[in-house]
Design goal:
By secondary structure, this protein is of the alpha/beta class. It is about 50% helix and about 20% strand. The chain contains 21 helices and 22 strands. It has a 16-stranded mixed β-sheet that branches. A two-stranded antiparallel ribbon has the order 5-6. Helix 3 packs antiparallel against helix 4 (about 55-65) and helix 7 (about 130-145) packs parallel to helix 8 (about 165-175). One of its GO terms (biological process) is cardiolipin biosynthetic process. Pfam families: PLDc_2, PLDc_N.
């Protein structure tokens, strides 16, 4: 044995190249079999290219990040919840749509119900808030009105000067005997270390039950788990009567990052405050996430209640999405609405990296005469995504899409869509591949004339703070920027 080992060591320069060559060939061949399986062609090609160029690096990365699957225990819970939700949905009829809504709206309602099992609810009201600190103050005021329970879920949460009053409100109600439950994404909150630790200390000090969502535990259930599957939802529900949801995280508008502060960056958001039956549906979605992380199944009768306020006139339907669902719910909804539009589409998205189907839907809409507007930021906070989304501007501009660049140094982080004068969708979902495949998102479809007027007012404000990007300007950008954008587009497909 010693002689054999001595020979191996002494002749390493002779046999190592052959081993490397054999492993290289095996990894390339295996990747051709497993990578394209049940994967978008663009994503498969990007992964294969990465593996073919550097097999010993690309293949392990594929094993690490190549499958958008939740941990096994979470998948089993998701299946249980999905079955319960579908049984519940069978016994709850959809609210009747107004007679003047277009025929395709009923089709959208059926699609959403099939995807997420949430019914269309009527008699809701909603208000929009686009001022960052005002929305946090309003949520804190609603928390202070709580009598029974407060449910809070945010992708990013941290205790700082901007959010301290909100956390003080949670503490006050918890000390008064109100049940307060808090969920936050593990990586989203952990990435803001000092604020994250301060938040946990305060929650613990007041006996508030809280859990990190999708905790980063690479080895779970006896197998490696993808670490970048995140819960990206943002919700606050008070007594099942008041519900907030939208794009805003619970942290200062510069995210407490020194680099952002030096650049003068601030985030612009849109949040919606709801009253009416839709709040119970939001509460039910929170209860499912609470079950996944805490193992506690909240009784449906305590979560879903008859709303005391049914004076509103909006029809609302919740559409959850994420890797726990078979279909890409948010992508399916967006595409269905884009193809249904006859007059106007306005899309606001901070990270716009569409797949082929969404890009085709928007380009087709523009070419058939629909007025299409896309709002994005003039500058970006994420290098790869920012340059990847810029690679789509040429084809959009050539098709007649108007692109509005929200002026620096503000990052437009709002996420909403309006179609004709019929329906709006607001929530946490970006129009990028991460939101379609890897992140748990919450979108809400709203119908109602008054709701559309409020959305148009927000769009008008954003338009006044933006400048239009023209095709002439875009074609004159430096050649190096074109190359960089296209390279980032290719890299962004590796999901």
């Amino acid at each position: 044995m010693t002689d054999a080992w001595t020979w191996v060591v002494d002749h390493g320069a002779l046999w190592l190249p052959y081993v490397y060559f054999a492993v290289d060939i095996v990894l390339r061949l295996v990747s051709l079999i497993i990578v394209p399986r049940n994967r978008r062609p663009g994503s498969a090609i990007a992964w294969l290219l990465a593996i073919m160029v550097l097999p010993l690096i690309g293949f392990p990365l594929y094993l690490l990040l190549g499958k958008a699957r939740l941990p096994r225990a979470r998948r089993e819970k998701q299946q249980v919840v999905n079955r319960l939700m579908r049984v519940r949905a069978q016994n709850i009829p959809d609210s009747e749509l107004d007679e003047d809504v277009p025929s395709w709206m009923q089709s959208a309602v059926r699609l959403n119900r099939e995807l997420g099992a949430f019914p269309l609810t009527g008699n809701n009201s909603a208000d929009l808030e686009i001022d960052y600190e005002t929305s946090i103050a309003a949520m804190a005021a609603d928390v202070r009105s709580a009598r029974e329970h407060v449910h809070v879920l945010f992708y990013i949460m941290g205790l700082d000067e901007t959010t301290e009053d909100f956390f003080a409100a949670l503490a006050e109600r918890a000390d008064a005997g109100v049940t307060v439950r808090v969920l936050y994404d593990h990586w989203g909150a952990l990435s803001h270390g000092p604020q994250y630790r301060a938040m946990r200390r305060m929650l613990d000090a007041h006996g508030i039950e809280h859990f990190p969502m999708n905790p980063i535990q690479p080895i779970r259930d006896g197998a490696f788990q993808r670490p970048d599957l995140r819960n990206h939802r943002k919700m606050v529900i008070v007594d099942g009567e008041i519900g907030w949801m939208g794009s805003q995280n619970l942290i200062a508008s510069h995210y407490d990052k020194p680099a952002n502060i030096r650049r003068g960056l601030h985030w612009q958001e849109t949040m919606a405050r709801f009253r009416g039956p839709i709040v119970s549906e939001l509460n039910l979605l929170f209860a499912t996430d609470w079950y996944y992380e805490s193992e506690q199944m909240l009784p449906e009768e305590t979560v879903v209640r008859r709303s005391p306020d049914t004076s509103g006139t909006y029809e609302c339907q919740l559409v959850p999405s994420g890797p726990g669902f078979v279909s890409e719910n948010n992508l399916a909804l967006f595409n269905q609405l884009f193809y249904s539009a006859t007059r106007r589409i306005v899309a606001v998205s901070p990270y716009f990296v569409p797949d082929e189907s969404m890009l085709a839907a928007l380009v087709t809409a523009a070419r058939r005469g629909v007025e299409v507007e896309l709002f994005v930021s003039e500058i970006g906070d994420q290098f790869l995504v920012f340059h990847a989304q810029r690679s789509y501007y040429s084809v959009l501009l050539e098709a007649g899409v108007k692109i509005w660049l929200y002026r620096a140094p503000t990052i437009l982080h709002a996420k909403h869509v309006t179609i004709d004068d019929s329906v709006a969708v607001i929530g946490s979902s970006n129009m990028d591949i991460r939101s379609f495949l890897l992140q748990m998102e919450c979108s809400l479809m709203i119908g109602g004339t008054d709701a559309m007027e409020k959305m148009r007012s927000v769009e008008g404000t954003y338009r006044s703070r933006s400048r239009e990007l023209t095709l002439e300007e875009w074609t004159q950008r430096p050649r190096t920027m074109q190359v960089l954008d296209n390279l980032c587009r290719l890299a962004s497909a590796v999901v």
